[in-house]
Amino acid sequence: MRNTAQAQAQQGFEFTDRDFDRLRELVYQHTGIRMADNRRDLIYGRLSRRLRALGLHSFAAYCRLIEDGQGDELEAFTNAVTTNLTAFFREAHHFDYLGNELLPELLKKNRDSRRIRIWSAGCSTGEEAYTAAMILLENIPDIHNWDVRILATDLDSDVLARASAGIYEQKNIRQVLGKRLQQWFQKGAGANAGKARIQPSVRELVTFRKLNLMQTWPMRGPFDLIFCRNVLIYFDKPTQKKLFERFAGILVNGGHLFIGHSESPMDLTDRFSLIGQSIYQKKH
Fold this sequence. Notes:
By secondary structure, the protein is of the alpha/beta class.
C-alpha cells in the first residue's frame, strides 16, 4: 500500500477508499461488472489519465462528473475500466469443435434455410470473431450460397474501432501459422509496414456493433452459436444467471454457448447441458 500511496502522491491525485467505492459502484451501475479489491491500482492507473485529460484535480470531482452524466465522459469511463484480453485461436479447442463437429451438423440442420448466425459477445479487438470467420470459410465450400453472418459486440468503442479496421501488429498474429497466415492476412505496407490486415473475405462476414450486455439487445436472433468467453467472470452470480437465461432465450433450440474455463451456468440455470470443455448446448 505504501508504494501505491507514494506513486499516487507523485502523480498528484489522492485516491481514498470512498473514491474507490464510489467508482466501483459506478462501474457496476453502468456495466454490471463487479470490481474486486485487487482492482484498486488498475482503477487508479486508468482513471488518473482521464483526470489529467479533463484537467480535474480529484477523483471526487470525476465521480460527480460521471454521476451527473455530463458530456461523453461516460463512454470514456467505461472504455477505461473494461479489460480487453484476446488472441487469434485462443482456446483452440473451441474452434476445432466448431470446424470439425458443429459446422457439419449445422450444414445438415440448416440446409433448407441456408442460414447460420454466430454472436461474439465481448469481442474486444476482433480476434475471436475473425477466427470464427476463418473457420467458416475453411469448412463451408459453397459459403457464398449461404446466408452466414457473425455479429461481434463490445462495450468499449475504442476496441471496436480497432476491430473494424482489422489491422494487427505482428506480435498479435503469432498464433496464426503457415497456410492460414498467408490465406487470411495481407502484409502491411507504407504506414502499415510491420503489420497485417485481415483479408476482405474474412472481414465481410463480421459486423461490429457497440452493445452493453446489461441493456436491451436490439438483435432478434436466433443464433446458432454464441461465444461469450472470459466475460461473465467479471459479473456477480445474479447477473450471470440473468445473462445465461438471456443467452438461452436468443439461441435456437440445441444452440451452442462457448464460455471461458472459469465460467459455468450449471448452478445458475437448467437450460444448458455440458457437452465438451467449456462448451454448452441449449436444451430443447
